From TrEMBL:
Domain Cytochrome c: 230-322
GO biological process: ATP synthesis coupled electron transport
Heme in keyword set: yes
Family that this chain belongs to: Belongs to the cytochrome c oxidase subunit 2 family.
NCBIfam families: CoxB
Subcellular location: Membrane
Identification of the protein by name: Cytochrome aa3 subunit 2
PROSITE patterns (alphabetical): COX2 (PS00078), COX2_CUA (PS50857), CYTC (PS51007)
């Protein structure tokens, strides 16, 4: 029963945000280091506890060897020195080369901001550069070279299924490399306390088959389409007249603000609010009207004075940007 109780917490250890369910990069090396340390630590703890009980309860003549010089030298000095000396190179090997980009790697730049993620795909071969937010799409099998920095305070970039954390520091570029080994949706988080909404600063990492990734990249590089449906055209006009374009860019329109997330293809993203809600007209409308209630402290004000119909038009327009 005790063993079962100890194993129960491990049930929650697989899934979209778990260092114990590696999907590429350094994650599996970190996983095995964790397992080695945990199992080794348990074995050492059990041995020491057994010796302690033996020392307390065994008859004096049978436990005399415990105090011998030989036991102290081998058990108290040699064993810890050898064990710790072996763990040091193991740990160093696990961390080795994780910041050196591999040949042919896909470059991606991620900038941590309070409280969201600016994601840039720089020009790559004949592919043009574009920006997105709160979502990193990667092809399976191709090395990814992520360079991270921050715009305001220190954040930390962590995708548990792909490797360790890396600090995002204003004015400095840090690098992290990984290769997604299987398609899927994974979750990344900010791992450094960065303000009121630190806990609500997440992002999706979506690993696609290479062909699907190329399709996605081609679509993202295109400018936004102007809506034809009257309601959505009204939403576009509200977006323009409301000054949304002074903070947000929608390529192909007059909106070219650089302060907030690029919304050119916001409708194609899985979630909004930095991984907080599924992306649909309802959550978009709720977000626009209540940002300061949902995530107090974000830079975007609540637009609570919009009528229901205006909100529907505006959210519908954003949702149509695919
Ligand atoms: Cu950004 Cu915590």
């Amino acid at each position: 029963a005790a063993a079962l109780f100890c194993v129960l917490p491990l049930i929650g250890c697989s899934g979209v945000q778990s260092a114990l369910d590696p999907a590429g990069g350094d994650a599996s090396r970190i996983y095995w280091l964790t397992m080695t340390m945990t199992v080794g630590g348990i074995l050492i703890f059990l041995s020491v506890t057994s010796l302690l009980l033996y020392a307390i309860f065994a008859p004096p003549e049978r436990r005399a060897w415990l105090g011998s010089r030989r036991t102290i030298i081998y058990g108290g000095l040699a064993f810890p020195i050898i064990t710790l000396s072996a763990l040091l190179p193991y740990g160093l090997i696990v961390m080795r080369d994780s910041d050196v980009p591999k040949a042919g790697a896909l470059p991606i730049e991620v900038i941590g901001e309070q409280y969201w993620w600016r994601v840039r795909y720089p020009a790559d071969g004949d592919r043009v550069a574009f920006s997105t937010a709160n979502e990193i799409i990667v092809p399976v099998g191709r090395p990814i070279a992520v360079s991270v920095t921050a715009a305001d305070v220190i954040h930390s970039f962590w995708i548990p299924n792909f490797g360790g954390k890396i600090d995002m520091i204003p004015g400095r570029i840090n690098r992290l490399n990984f290769t997604a080994e299987r398609p899927g949706i994974y979750r990344g988080v900010c791992a450094e306390f960065c303000g009121d909404q630190h806990a609500r600063m997440a992002f999706d990492v979506i690993a696609l088959e290479p062909a699907a990734f190329e399709t996605w990249r081609t679509e993202q590089a295109k400018p936004a389409q102007d809506p034809e449906v009257p309601l959505l055209a009204r939403g576009r006009e509200l977006f323009r007249a409301g000054g949304c374009g002074s903070c947000h860019a929608v390529r192909g329109t007059e909106a070219n603000g650089q302060f907030g997330p690029d919304l050119t293809h916001v409708g194609s993203r899985r979630t909004i609010g930095a991984g907080q809600f599924p992306n649909n007209i309802g959550t978009l409308a709720g977000w626009i009207a209540n940002t300061q209630h949902i995530k107090p402290g974000v830079r975007m004000p609540s637009y609570g004075s919009l009528t229901g119909e205006d909100l529907r038009a505006l959210a519908g327009y954003l949702e149509s940007l695919r």
